[in-house]
Amino acid sequence: RIARSGWSLEVAIPAACLNGWNPIEHPRIGVLGLNPHAGEGGLLGDEEQRIIRPAMTLARNAGIDARGPLSPDTAFTPESQEAHDGLVAMYHDQALIPVKMMGFHRAVNVTLGLPVVRTSPDHGTAFDIAGKNRAHPGSMREAIRQAVAIVARRQQAAARAMPT
């Protein structure tokens, strides 16, 4: 079940992380709709109007540049990528299928909102090929590289925030 109060937090976390870790002062967060074509004004579902839009209003009132709901089928196009600094998907495969298609051996999962940095390869645990010398190392290398970069950016942000 989608709840307004919990959902608005899911927009706040990526906005805060993009602001704190990256040189993005006012991150633009694209929010995907739950239904095909973001519900088409209620024709294909009312969650966008009933829950997502009010939650986005709460996020905007809190100073977050939340945009959408975006049609999930076009949210990962180059044009949409240029218009947004981050995307919030409504469920796992809504985001991971296009991300894996764009760069399967380079994609990294970053878990936001934790007190520690957590990255993982895009392929998950891959227990089925563990120990068989079949895994492609690209995503794991990138996950480690991203973790190191995020820690460095966090440290830089903390140093900037300290009084001189």
Fold and architecture overview:
It is a single chain. This protein is α/β, with parallel strands linked by helices and 164 residues long. The chain folds into 2 domains: 1-94, no CATH class; 104-164. 46% of the residues lie in helices and 13% in strands. The protein has 5 helices and 5 strands; from the N terminus they run H-E-H-E-H-E-H-E-E-H. It has a 3-stranded parallel beta sheet with strand order 2-1-3. A two-stranded antiparallel ribbon has the order 4-5. A hairpin with a 6-residue loop joins strand 4 and strand 5 (118-121). Helix 1 (4-21) packs across helix 2. The longest helix has 24 residues, at 138-161. The termini are far apart. The mean pLDDT is 85.
Can you write the helix and strand succession as a string?
Answer: HEHEHEHEEH
> How far is the first residue's CA from the last residue's CA?
47 Å
Radius of gyration: 17 Å
Mean of pLDDT: 85
Structural class by secondary-structure content: alpha/beta
Strand content is 5-15%
Biggest sheet, strands in spatial order? 2-1-3
Spans where pLDDT lies below 50 across 5 or more residues: none
Total strands = 5
Question: How many individual domains?
Answer: 2
- Helix % is 40-55%
For the largest beta-sheet, the strand count, sense and barrel status come to:
3 strands, parallel
Number of helices: 5
- Rough outline: flat
Give short descriptive properties of this protein.
2 domains; 5 strands; 164 residues; alpha/beta; 46% helix; 5 helices; two-stranded antiparallel sheet; three-stranded parallel beta sheet
